[in-house]
Amino acid sequence: MNKRELVIEVTRGGFVESRHQVIAVISDAKGKRHTQWGDADQLVFPRSTAKPLQALPLMLSGAAQDLKLSQQQLAMACSSHNGEVQHSHVVSSWLEQLGMSSEQLECGSHWPLYQPATVALSQSGVQACSVHNNCSGKHCGFLSFAHHQGIDPKGYIDHQHPVQQAVNDAMGRMMDLKITDHPMGIDGCSIPTYALPLTNLAMAFARFGTGEQLPDDWQKACHSLYQAMVTEPFYVAGSERHCTKVMQAYGGQVACKTGAEGVFGAAIPHLGLGIALKALDGNSRAAEVALNVLLDHLKVQPTEAVFEQHSKLHNCNKMHVSSIQLALVK
Amino acid sequence: MNKRELVIEVTRGGFVESRHQVIAVISDAKGKRHTQWGDADQLVFPRSTAKPLQALPLMLSGAAQDLKLSQQQLAMACSSHNGEVQHSHVVSSWLEQLGMSSEQLECGSHWPLYQPATVALSQSGVQACSVHNNCSGKHCGFLSFAHHQGIDPKGYIDHQHPVQQAVNDAMGRMMDLKITDHPMGIDGCSIPTYALPLTNLAMAFARFGTGEQLPDDWQKACHSLYQAMVTEPFYVAGSERHCTKVMQAYGGQVACKTGAEGVFGAAIPHLGLGIALKALDGNSRAAEVALNVLLDHLKVQPTEAVFEQHSKLHNCNKMHVSSIQLALVK
Question: Left, alpha or beta for A125 (phi > 0: left; psi -120 to 50: alpha)?
């Protein structure tokens, strides 16, 4: 167990109000740890952080190529999107392209993550459906894979369905693990999620960004998804979202992906490194600040200064009432 | 520093996903500690947990009586409400009663806390305004006090305004502290909030529930507010909210109030005790479970079994995917 600590604090009136403990690790594609904070061997549910890895069967099968999927579609296959009109438009068109309906998405329905999108949708008299689920892009990827492989998509969220088996095999190859040997839970969108060592997730992100330690076709698959994410960052998340802001600010140097319960993963290809981190209490605000801290630690320079602004929290009278920032890294 | 620990865990597939550390203290009206977990002397911003105390000038001044405020109005003076139609109706009527408009509320605007209320409001073509702010009931209390005292309400959110001075004096009397000697921050609704010892907050809740250690008129003021909260718990919070559920489940034995950043306060008059607690990472889900744990620790019996159900978390396909519960109390 490593003794380095990464602590993020929220202050109000300059006084500490809340504190978050974060575990984090930076790894290369061979699994060599560059730096770690806390126990990087801890088992963590990657949740949606795994999405770029879960999209690999879509690429490796040839489905993406045969369906001529756009960069926006590929970005959405890796996304936890806001349910804004641009997102629902891509998902709806994609389902149409597959000759499928929103009822074949098995992710469930929820109102858009982004409140202005919920308001706009309600104002236009539309009810939320599975298209607006933040995971609907990933699920379109699953349906595309099944469609291309001639597999009946029905029940594709089940851990024994061929779609999830292909997903687990791909994640396992990227992480040098047999995923299904690990504790299984069910994710928000109803597919399985496995508790996996944080350090293997960081290694997988290093491989994802660099293609190192991977066969040629895997290299190509990872490269295509990476390029889609950094070229179309709005389609990975959306307005006011950290993934989108980071990828915009670093101008292609970093691809990153958030996951529920305070997880974040990132690939920094020009350094040959990957990052994985988790706020132990599951709070995403701490994970976001921790990602900024780690990119700064690696001296990766953003092309836009978005982070000082990001650390200031405002109330509904637009007063700057509190801040969130690194309190301790040692 | 007390060595007892209170830890709340979130599990997924039976495996721990996230953990929350909570500090908590149970006190009587004299400030004698019954039990504590962690450092109960720690300074904590009570945030909205202070609302029942902040409503005292409304009672003590005679404003509530002269204005013949209903129990629903008094409950709302202590509320962080959902912005449901019942809530906005009480607030709008109250402003009308005062001959004032929503523009005199200085809390700022936000869409209702309760998503179905945001959807319903949007569908009916109405924009959110200060009436829907979760603090608008408290602010109506402030305006009523100013109106009754013949004070110009303009700028009533400022820490030097007579309204806030009266509020701070009342809180100070309940907590045996000079509030303004403590670190000041600005709350979500723009009034000042002070970082105060958690144990004094617990004592204030014991006094609030019992009237002990207070002059006659203060006893009466506390009793009226307590009765309003437990008689009209929907108006303290709303649908699916923990404050409302707890007060309904304990049938008048407990009045409780949540605050932002993981704070909770509760009064249990028949035991002569008050509770104050804070999830150190600021997460309200942990504070809610911790409140249940402490009420159970005190062997207070709910009239309805709501808590087992409350600990099960479901995804948008209504699958029971994770749980939140006590992991460690020692």
Answer: left
Contact residues on chain A for B119, CB-CB shorter than 8 A: 111, 118, 122
**Pick from A13, A125, A319: CB nearest B123:** A125
What are the residues facing B266 on neighbouring strands? B256, B275
Find residue B44's DSSP bridge partners: B196
Residue A193 and residue A15: Cα distance in Å, rounded? 38
* CB contact at 8 A, B36 and B193: no
Q: Both tokens of residue A143?
A: 């349906």
* E strand residue ranges, A124-176: none
Reading the block at residue A226, the tokens are 């990476």
A80: its two tokens: 């936890």
| pLDDT tens figures, A84-143 | 999 999 999 999 999 999 999 999 999 999 999 999 999 999 999 999 999 999 999 999
Is 70 exceeded by the pLDDT of residue B308? Answer: no
Neighbours of A40 (CB within 10 A): 25
Q: For residues A28, A32, A37 and A38, what is the CA-based torsion angle, rounded to 10 degrees?
A: 130
Minimal CA separation from B8 to chain A, in Å: 10
Read off the pTM.
Answer: 0.95
C-alpha distance from residue B249 to each of A290, B82, B130, B231, B284 (Å): 40, 19, 31, 12, 19
Q: For residue range B143-161, what is the model confidence (pLDDT) as tens digits? A: 999 999 999 999 999 999 9
User: Residue A224 — pLDDT band, cuts 50, 70, 90?
Assistant: very high
B326: three-class secondary structure by DSSP = strand
The tokens 């706020």 sit on which residue?
A279
Q: How many CB atoms lie within 10 A of CB B127?
A: 11
Tell me the C-alpha distance between A10 and A285, whole Å.
Answer: 10
Residue type, A264: F
Rounded to the nearest angstrom, the minimum Cα separation between B11 and chain A is 9
Average pLDDT over chain B, rounded to an integer:
95
Quote the pLDDT of residue A306.
Answer: 66
Span B111-127, pLDDT tens digits: 999 999 999 999 999 99
Instruction: Using the predicted structure, report yes or no on whether residue A328 has a pLDDT greater than 80.
Output: no
Whole-angstrom distance, CA of residue B52 vs CA of residue B59? 11
Count of C-beta atoms within a 10 Å radius of residue A61? 17
